[in-house]
Amino acid sequence: MDVTIREIQTADKAQWRELWNGYNQFYESSVSEAVTEKTWQRMLSEHSSIEGRVAVVNGEVKGFAHIVLHEGTWELAPICYLEDLFVAPDMRGNGLARRLIQSLVDEGKAKGWSRLYWHTRENNPARKLYDQFTDVEDFVLYRMNLSGRGV
Ligand SMILES: CC(C)(COP(=O)(O)OP(=O)(O)OC[C@H]1O[C@@H](n2cnc3c(N)ncnc32)[C@H](O)[C@@H]1OP(=O)(O)O)[C@@H](O)C(=O)NCCC(=O)NCCS
């Protein structure tokens, strides 16, 4: 199995879109076409802090990691938030998610990011993987919906 982790690129759109649909189904949410398109454009734009990495298996995009680089009040260097992580159901258990996360660790060290973080549901089985990277913290998440829409 030939696996490459690389930055997302324009030609990935159709395959990324299929995975994105699967990701939204997993979360039982529906992201509007306008948001999906904007998310896609932002990932390819130099002027956005949203970026995408993909896992390519034998030439096909089979997984993605979406990240947001942001500033912080406690750090000088950029902080990386891993917002979305997804692997195609037919490719799970092959280490793709592990490689996607590890590539962010490696990239962050090389580029001088100060921190990488993500959150997940308490009962997400993927925590078995996450626990291999770092200890879980005891912060809890408070979130208010200010838009009047679902998410
Ligand atoms: C979570 C997800 C990205 C993992 O992708 P993956 O490529 O299958 O993960 P890996 O193969 O790199 O997993 C590595 C390890 O974690 C474990 N693991 C990862 N996801 C798991 C899951 N859903 N259930 C059970 N174990 C899991 C594997 O058993 C493996 O452990 P091992 O090496 O000790 O056997 C994938 O299951 C997925 O897309 N799930 C739906 C979306 C989701 O939950 N995203 C994360 C939201 S925070």
Supply the number of helical segments: 4
Number of E-state strands: 5
**What structural class do helix, strand and pairing data support?**
alpha+beta
Please indicate the count of domains.
1
Helical content stands at: 25-40%
Largest sheet: 5 strands, mixed
User: Over the alpha carbons, how many angstroms does the gyration radius reach?
Assistant: 16 Å
Order of strands, main sheet, comes to 1-2-3-4-5
Q: Into which percentage range does the β-strand content fall?
A: 25-35%
What's the architecture in CATH terms? 3-Layer(aba) Sandwich
Assigned CATH superfamily: Gcn5-related N-acetyltransferase (GNAT)
SSE sequence, one letter per element: EHHEEEHEH
Q: Care to describe what's here?
A:
- This protein has 151 residues and is of the alpha+beta class.
- It has one domain (3-133): Aminopeptidase, CATH 3.40.630.
- Helices cover 30% and strands 28% of the residues.
- The protein has 4 helices and 5 strands; from the N terminus they run βααβββαβα.
- It has helices at 13-26, 33-44, 96-111, 127-130; strands at residues 3-7, 50-57, 60-72, 75-87, 115-117.
- The chain has a 5-stranded mixed sheet, with helices on both faces.
- Helix 3 (96-111) links the parallel strand 4 (75-87) and strand 5 (115-117).
- The chain is globular and about 40 Å long.
- The protein starts with a strand and ends in a 21-residue tail after the last helix.
- The model has no long low-confidence stretch (mean pLDDT 96).
- Bound molecules: coenzyme A (COA).
- Coenzyme A is lined by residues 26, 85-87, 92-98, 120, 124-126, 128-129.
